[in-house]
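Q: Hi! First time doing this. I have a protein sequence and I read that you can turn it into a structure. Is that right? Here it is:
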Amino acid sequence: MSDTILSILVLAAIAMVLGAIAWWRRGMRKQAALMLVLALVIAGNVAIWVLPDESGKVPVNAAIR
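A: Yes, that's right. Below is the predicted 3D structure, encoded as structure tokens:
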């Protein structure tokens, strides 16, 4: 279940970046910048959940149990 959620978040971050590029080309710079910030926040949250800590455990696996 958590793998599905993380996959959807990664796809959403990619979609945000592509949408930001499209908006940047149309001249909507502020909205594009905000979408990029949101994509970075999503990517940061995914990284927090999937990167191992000092002991080598992944937080997403600990949260499931």
